[in-house]
Amino acid sequence: MKNSATLSASIPPARGSKRIRRDPMSTRNPFTLIEILMVFLIIGILMALFIPMLREAKIQAKYARWLAFNRSCSNDPTCVVNFNFQGDGWAFCTPPPGDKLVNSAAGSESSDFAPEFYDGLLKNNRSPTARHNFEWVRAGRFGRYKWALKFNGVDTYVLIPTTKELNFTPYNGFTILCWIKFDKLDLGDCPFSKSLWGTAKDASCQYDIYSMPWAGKFGQGSFDVDVFTTCGTWPNTEIDFDKAGWVHLALRYKCLKKDPATGEAKGQITVFINGKPLGKFINTTEENPYTATATDWVECSKRRVPLILGGAGCYRKYWSPSTYAKGDESLENTWIIKFPFQGLMDEFMAYKRALSDGEIRGHYDMGKP
Amino acid sequence: MEAIMSFLQNKRARNIVIAVLLFFCLAGIIIHAVLNAPVPPPPGALRAVICKKCQKLQVSRIVDPQNPKVKCSYCGGDVGMAWKCGHCGYVYYVVPRKIDAERLSTMQRFVKVEAMRSCPNCGESRDVRPMSVDEVPGFKRHTEER
Predict the structure, then answer these.
(1) Chain A positions in Cβ-Cβ contact with residue B48 (cut-off 8 Å)
(2) Are A184 and B133 an interchain contact pair (Cβ–Cβ within 8 Å)?
(3) Half-sphere exposure in the Cβ direction for B33 (13 Å, CA)
(4) What are the CA-CA distances from residue A156 to residues A61, A150, A178, A322, B88 (Å)?
(5) Backbone angles phi, psi at A55, to 5 degrees
(6) Does B46 contact A152 at a Cβ distance shorter than 8 Å?
(7) Which positions 30-59 of B are in contact with A (Cβ < 8 Å)?
(8) Is A83 helix (H, G, I), strand (E, B) or coil?
(9) Which of A279, A345, A355, B134 is the most exposed place for a label (fewest CB within 10 A)?
């Protein structure tokens, strides 16, 4: 029996008998190497074509969403300043906006408000007549679709000449929002201010914000704000500004209580970074009572100190006596820009009311790259 | 005609030719994408710097003014940010250092920053400013850079 079984296995199947089916578990490949290579190449070609297109489409969609939102913000009756850094046009790839930032806020109910009064003028700190040294770059939050203004940290600042609607008081609220990108956080880099810094006994400030490198839990940097006569420092922002890229910064002042008898007001200052409110700040005015921060804020209104982007306003008589002319009370002679900011900015807004946490979060969500 | 027909019937040769064509197609697309990729603007801002060795003023694109990682184009030495004293007109570079100013008020901080940037020639600490690129001899920013 054993011998006959061995013999039958070695004989090939007779002609016309059923073909042996291939074992489905066989490891032999039904495709040739070239065929597999062709499939991979076709997939590669499709990916090379579509991935950049999808990426561009995503950026364009985000840009369109932000633009629509920004436009709706312009119709808010409390929005005084809205610079979208895109010039006059609302379309994609507009030409460079030129020598001024166009204010598109048009919803204000004030009878004597006109948006063009609050246009931002690009200026050179060395001389009022010198050509500005700003650079317009197509490198905003939405890549080549969004213009951004490069502040050089030396002599560039944006001047908003009209002050009336921006003269905020402690009895009202206000909110200022901007998208910025620091080249490197340096002590005193001031993205915006409405101030007249002088000496410990002679300094006036309505609002400003400046950077504080080395501060924070990990030394990653933080911010300091001055609102009226309060100076506040946030010890920890939990953001590494050198690596963060574009940052959404919002400063809000909310009037909580007003004493009609004394005229004193109690307010709450909050800084939001990327839509999140920072926690409790260190009140350095209370900690250092005899080396005050701003001694008042009224002087800024009286002297019509303008809001500027990219530096801190200071008294010329203290900070640049060599260029100060005694007896000349004009603003140009009174005031000089110090602590210039180096980096990019591509959106700036000012509201004459305290926005809610949700609204500020909404600004961030709609504008995040 | 016969040669073409025999080529088309030769599955192996036909597939190799198609694979080679696809490969060149993919390579072409990738090369085109790389060559036409939008070039981001250079980081940093144009700043006036001064060589610590040969004291020559020049313009460089600086990202971090505390630590400008550029070399002098004349002698290869380290450079620092150029500052000018408004009191005596002296041009110098600032040596940055870490300032512990977390719990100070604004004016106290400004005083500390002033001290770091004071003029080494006359000691003036307030009437000093970073030099503009317009003040660097021979640099024509508006025509060359824009």
Answers:
(1) 154
(2) no
(3) 15
(4) 32, 9, 17, 21, 24
(5) -65, -45
(6) yes
(7) 30, 33, 38, 40-41, 43-48
(8) strand
(9) A279
Chain B 97-116, residues with CB within 8 Å of chain A CB atoms: 98-110, 113
Res. A164: pLDDT tops 60: yes
Q: Does B79 touch chain A (CB under 8 A)?
A: no
Check residue A323 and report its DSSP letter.
G
Report whether B137 contacts A126 (CB < 8 A). no
* Contact check, Cβ <8 Å, A45/B102: no
Token digits of residue B74: 């004349």
Please report residues of A whose CB lies closer than 8 A to that of B130.
153-155, 340
Residue A270 has pLDDT above 60, yes or no: yes
B29 in reach of chain A (CB within 8 A): yes
Residue B123, chain A, CB below 8 Å: the answer is: no
* Chain B residues whose beta carbon lies within 8 Å of the beta carbon of residue A126: 132, 134
CA distance A247 to A235: 18
Which one, of A168, A146, A186, lies nearest residue A63 by Cα?
Answer: A146
Per DSSP, helices labelled H in chain A are: 2-10, 33-74, 241-244, 284-287, 298-302, 316-319, 331-334, 357-367
Give the pLDDT band (50/70/90) at residue A242: confident
DSSP, collapsed to helix, strand or coil, labels residue A229 as: coil
Report which residue type is found at B121. Answer: N
pLDDT per residue as tens digits for the range A68-101: 999 999 999 999 999 999 876 555 666 777 888 9
Task: Tell me the C-alpha distance between A329 and A350, whole Å.
Answer: 28
Q: Write down the domain spans for chain B.
A: 2-35, 45-137
Closest approach of A11 to chain B, Cα-based (Å): 34
- Among partner residues B12, B86, B141, which is closest to A323 by beta-carbon distance? B86
pTM flag (> 0.90) = no
The Cβ of residue A141 has, within 10 Å, a number of other Cβ atoms equal to 22
